[in-house]
Amino acid sequence: MNTLLEKLQHCINTKTKPIGSLGMLEEIAFKIGSIQNTLRPTLSKPTILVFAGDHGVVQKHAVSPFPQEVTSQMVFNFLQGGAAINVFCKQNNINLRIIDAGVNFDFKEIPNLIHAKIKYGTLDYTTAPAMSIEDCKQALKKGKELVTQQFSKNTNIIGFGEMGIGNTSSAALLMSFFTQISLEHCVGKGTGLDTEGVNTKLETLKKAQQKHTNIQTPIEALAAFGGFEIAMMAGAFLQAAALNMTILVDGFIVTSALLVAHAINPSVLEHCIFSHCSNEQGHLKMLQFLKADAILNIGLRLGEGTGAALAYPLVTSAVNFLNEMASFESANVSTK
């Protein structure tokens, strides 16, 4: 065997089990071993960064059944430990950090919140780009910086989550742009719209799409349709890949940020493990576009990084079997 990857596959295949019998765990073990270039990978200080931002389209258009104030209220809930992502991160010993990427609220100097606000929410993209190119680049840069800070604390596996009323609308527009799938197949219920609400949301997003027809680059698309939380996550994806970290990908909105990062640098996918397939319409098609298989399919559509937190124990199991399970040879078990 000439290469480490061949040795890694041999190591997986010769554990005391039928080849392939641990299913996706074997693929995850191989991927993390490949990322870390070792036969004995480790998971160090797992972290989930939750980025919060508001969207200007919400103020004039009924794209969400919830008012914009819920974004800032949920940030306080995160900081007080009361959200689903808090519960799952605590359960699985995952470090959780909350970031104000662009919430339409003045948090002042509230402790334990990472203050990275670019603006107090984006503009209404039915009438103007959601953000300027300069602000978009600033958000990308900030996302990269935040990942670098975690890397410097010895984190080698990271996930991203988000909070932002209206951000499934941004995600749908970005999905349609990057995958070239019609908006009808990208727009879903979000936080719980009924059929009439979904149709109203679709018509609003069609107006936005028609407003921005001269987009040439991934950053122009992100500036036109994105949120500051999505832009920071796109930068975070790029930096985590550049630092050779393993990335746990959450659901629909996080994957829209990955679509941006992938368009900028396709090799980012080599570092991604997809935690779950969201119940939000469009996410399965996103995964198919990226040729990705998800670990879980349990009807999640909450966001916050919850899918990444729930999948983490299975990722741990993949690394543990590779490191701790006996081989046929070491256990003196016959192969025939």
Give a topology summary.
Elements: H1 4-13, H2 24-36, E1 47-53, H3 69-79, H4 84-91, E2 95-102, E3 113-115, H5 133-152, E4 157-163, H6 167-179, H7 195-211, H8 218-225, H9 228-242, E5 246-249, H10 252-264, E6 272-276, H11 283-289, E7 294-296, H12 306-324
Parallel strand pairs: 1-2, 1-4, 2-3, 4-5, 5-6, 6-7
Helix pairs in contact: 1-2, 2-12, 5-8, 5-9, 6-8, 6-10, 8-10, 9-10
Q: What key attributes describe this structure?
A:
336 residues, alpha/beta, Rossmann fold, 12 helices, globular
What can you see in these coordinates?
The chain has 336 residues and is α/β, with parallel strands linked by helices. The chain has one domain: Nicotinate-nucleotide-dimethylbenzimidazole phosphoribosyltransferase (CobT), large domain (Rossmann fold, 3-Layer(aba) Sandwich), CATH 3.40.50. It has twelve helices and seven strands. It has a seven-stranded parallel β-sheet with strand order 3-2-1-4-5-6-7, with helices on both faces. 50% of the residues are buried.
Q: Please summarize the sheet with the most strands.
A: 7 strands, parallel
- What's the mean pLDDT score? 96
CATH superfamily: Nicotinate-nucleotide-dimethylbenzimidazole phosphoribosyltransferase (CobT), large domain
Helix content: 40-55%
Q: What value does the Rg take, in angstroms?
A: 20 Å
The overall number of domains is 1
Quaternary organization: single chain
Strand order within the widest sheet?
3-2-1-4-5-6-7
Number of strands: 7
How widely separated are the two ends?
22 Å
Structural class comes to: alpha/beta
User: At the third CATH level, what is the topology name?
Assistant: Rossmann fold
